[in-house]
């Protein structure tokens, strides 16, 4: 319950103003006529102004809702944890550390999209039962994105389900969520036994499996496919256009010794080999089955940008060292700095027209390696270095970030701004994975709080070279920062002015005289609704004493109502501010506030109905 001194010091005006702000913010977040960032900033500004002129004093006359209290959300440990984990997750993405896990899931899922999705989401639900679900979601965001791309599904159909299954998994054990631990702590403070580790695993598993079925088969149909359209416009790798590329097989390549099967090389999926040049001899398809790839062979291939990137990432030794470095002043520059992949077009009047790459000396003149040439008019069957360039040709180039940026100043080429993308750094993948697993292991064992481990992990990602400062800063989403800060400020004001207790008491008063199962069902629904307005932790602290008091009045085992709080407070599905994992997937899924409301509301209703039917039978509560 809220402290009586605080509640009595609040005026009705303060309480009703805060309640009006809650209603107004939900409407604005849902309509999104104004951006979420601007709505959040306006909400914080109104709270600051109102409680500056109408302060809420404590027993000593200090304003409980002064600027420091209302702005404390920006320094909230939960927010800093999320931001740090986003940086750590970005390190895993840029080093390609998640591609192996995504490959395992798709390999076992085969071509069946439903099986692949089931495996990925079920693994998340199982892991979330024993690990903090925030880092679990962080690592699986890029994995599910890669999975969606491989099975040609929109990421927006899978990001919200990813967050939901993590929350559902957290319902099954005592350490599955911080909410569960808070309810157990509240019981101890009320002089009752704490919840046992697996005390609510049975009922939690029933709810989790019911929700999982909904998340797998129904929720994706309720979500928009906007992310896929945006990705086609913003993600150059989604283009299907073919480049002519020339690959020199290096001495460390996995291709050495490979032989064609039915004319194709399994090490180069989605890539068509048009010619193999060995010394002065050129072989054209169809290739004989006894032909064996050797170091130094030149492969002239036709492939999409995505297929080329995946091949070079999977086999870093594919490119010969001579082609994998550029020279400056006669010295070789190792390509272990930040590498960009971009496309440049030759405009009419370019001085490069009519010359081939060797004549131009493109690699030495511009310090960028040309990976491929794309020409719409015809497919070229010759070595890439011998192709004479024409106006309109598009070159796929790789180089250091500063060298690619320098192409803007070259009038002979036009850098296609939308095409620039950071390349994965496979040589940092092991250290990035070590840092990430260390963050999870240290936090899961309780050696240090997850806030500490995640912040140190983010710092190590930058210090180790897996990320630079610019890439780390890009991983931080300002929408998350402002949404969390505004939600925490509003939730704090709602509790301290007595608004949360007032609404809860009014709703619970309507249940007096009803049978115990009905009261338990309505209590679950009330907590589930509140957890999407307040934080789930706030609901755990607020409603546990209320539930215990109701159980004692009804003569029901108090732990039953405590478990109802655990289950309902974890139903943070209808709002992005209800739970950290919802905020994490908001950006990758390109979601609006209303998308969570559309997908989460049916899930809350399903869990409420399942709990209302199963709990009275399981705990033998008579009508």
In a nutshell, what does this entry contain?
Helix content is 54%, strand content 9%.
Describe this structure in words.
It is built from 27 helices and 11 strands. It is an alpha+beta fold and 623 residues long. Among the domains are: 240-318, 2-Layer Sandwich (Alpha-Beta Plaits), CATH 3.30.70; 337-413, Regulator of K+ conductance, C-terminal domain (Alpha-Beta Plaits). The strands form 2 sheets. Strands 1, 2, 3, 4, 7, 8, 9, 10 and 11 form a 9-stranded antiparallel sheet that branches. It has a two-stranded antiparallel ribbon with strand order 5-6. Strand 5 and strand 6 (331-333) form a beta hairpin. The longest helix is centred in the C-terminal third of the chain and has 26 residues, at 593-618. It is elongated, with a radius of gyration of 29 Å. The two termini are 28 Å apart. One of its GO terms (biological process) is potassium ion transport. It is a multi-pass membrane protein.
What is the radius of gyration computed over CA atoms, rounded to a whole number of angstroms? 29 Å
Q: Would you give the CATH topology of the domain at 240-318?
A: Alpha-Beta Plaits
Question: Which geometry do the CA atoms define?
Answer: elongated
Helix content: 40-55%
Taking the sheet with the most strands, its summary is: 9 strands, antiparallel
Protein name: Potassium transporter TrkA
Subcellular location: Membrane
Transmembrane segments: 13-31, 38-57, 77-103, 115-144, 164-188, 200-223, 435-468, 480-498, 518-548, 560-579, 599-619
Pfam family, one: TrkA_C
